[in-house]
């Protein structure tokens, strides 16, 4: 990797040692030492950050991976950003591979768009630039009033498929629901493979049915609005029986998605694919949150392998499940840091990426 100019400081904002591994990898690739900082929780659970070197007039990159305690993770980041701002850092760039609360980016009945709130808090604290990876919805970039670079992990996952799955030419890329069909299509077109879509699964949290703007009252109460006004009710959706659009018989099925957290939908998809004749099943995702009993359920399931990147630390989950494999994405993050610090174009990192990717 090309050398960086002076005036670069890299901090990791995690008080959790297992979450600092990605920061160490990035610093090693850039040939610099991690900045000296103390991040810890006091007895009353307040977060305290103490920067132990000068950042005046420097480009500060704060790497924050999301631990199990996501709210503490956010507070650590905000406090460190504000500390750098009050210490006269020239630029404060957040490197947040997995953006927390990204699933809460739509209005849900009487809820709130939490990812917009989080974006506002980061900008208010003093962040001047954000580097992230595979946002759950690309529109989240619009919640920020600072530059956002939404990098892609798909080149690393595609490389894994080509190098680690010997018979990948006999594979089919699977979308476990119609909503993830675009991602599956992107993988299939790059690998010159076929595509299959599972339709008819149980309603999930991302559906329009839980969006307040698409959930009319079940009982038509015209008088409550106006005696002479009749508003037609929207016909409720009804899921058809589970079907697989595409041929998976005698093939390797590769399910692709951006996040794997609650694995129930993946397990159901794997069972369906097995019934349709798929003889091997892989799951590929950028962010492996793998909450709760996910490792145990994967270990006992029909899934042969789950491949995720190290945007989120999951070493404990790997100890519980031998099927979980990790792809390192520190290379692209370190190159993004180098280019931003040296004032170089970022377009090289977005080659061949279309609007739908």
TrEMBL record:
Domain Ribose-phosphate pyrophosphokinase N-terminal residue range list: 9-126
Gene Ontology CC: one annotated term: cytoplasm
Xref: SUPFAM superfamilies: PRTase-like (SSF53271)
Phosphoprotein in keyword set: yes
Assembly mode: Binds to PRPS1 and PRPS2.
PANTHER family to which the protein is assigned, alphabetical: PHOSPHORIBOSYL PYROPHOSPHATE SYNTHASE-ASSOCIATED PROTEIN 2, RIBOSE-PHOSPHATE DIPHOSPHOKINASE FAMILY MEMBER
Descriptive protein name: Phosphoribosyl pyrophosphate synthase-associated protein 2
Organism whose genome encodes this protein: Electrophorus voltai
């Amino acid at each position: 990797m090309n050398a960086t100019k002076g005036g670069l400081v890299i901090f990791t904002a995690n008080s959790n040692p297992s979450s600092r591994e990605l920061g160490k990898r990035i610093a090693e690739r850039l040939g610099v030492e991690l900045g000296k900082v103390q991040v810890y929780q006091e007895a009353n659970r307040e977060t305290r950050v103490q920067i132990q070197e000068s950042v005046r007039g420097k480009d500060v990159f704060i790497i924050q991976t999301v631990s199990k305690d996501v709210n503490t993770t956010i507070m650590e980041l905000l406090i460190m950003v504000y500390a750098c701002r009050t210490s006269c850092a020239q630029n404060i760039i957040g490197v947040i591979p997995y953006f927390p609360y990204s699933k809460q980016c739509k209005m849900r009945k009487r809820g709130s768009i939490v990812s917009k709130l989080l974006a506002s808090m980061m900008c208010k604290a003093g962040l001047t630039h954000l580097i992230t990876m595979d946002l759950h919805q690309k529109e989240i970039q619009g919640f920020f009033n600072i530059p956002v670079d939404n990098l892609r992990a798909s080149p690393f996952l595609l490389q894994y498929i080509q190098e680690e799955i010997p018979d990948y030419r006999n594979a089919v890329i699977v979308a476990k629901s119609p909503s993830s069909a675009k991602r599956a299509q992107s993988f299939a077109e790059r690998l010159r493979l076929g595509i299959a879509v599972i339709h008819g699964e149980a309603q999930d949290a991302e559906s329009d049915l839980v969006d307040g703007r698409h959930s009319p009252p079940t009982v038509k109460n015209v008088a409550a609005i106006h005696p002479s006004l009749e508003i037609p009710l929207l016909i409720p959706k009804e899921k058809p029986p589970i079907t697989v659009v595409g041929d998976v018989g005698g093939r390797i099925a590769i399910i692709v998605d951006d996040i794997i957290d609650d694995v129930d939908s993946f397990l159901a998809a794997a069972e369906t694919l097995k019934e349709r004749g798929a003889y091997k099943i892989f799951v590929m995702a950028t962010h492996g949150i793998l909450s709760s009993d996910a490792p145990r359920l994967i270990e006992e399931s029909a899934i042969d392998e789950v491949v995720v990147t190290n945007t989120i630390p999951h070493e404990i989950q790997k100890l519980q499940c031998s099927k979980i494999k990790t792809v390192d994405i520190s290379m692209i993050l370190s190159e993004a840091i180098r280019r931003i610090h040296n004032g170089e174009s970022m377009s090289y990192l977005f080659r061949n990426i279309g609007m739908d990717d």
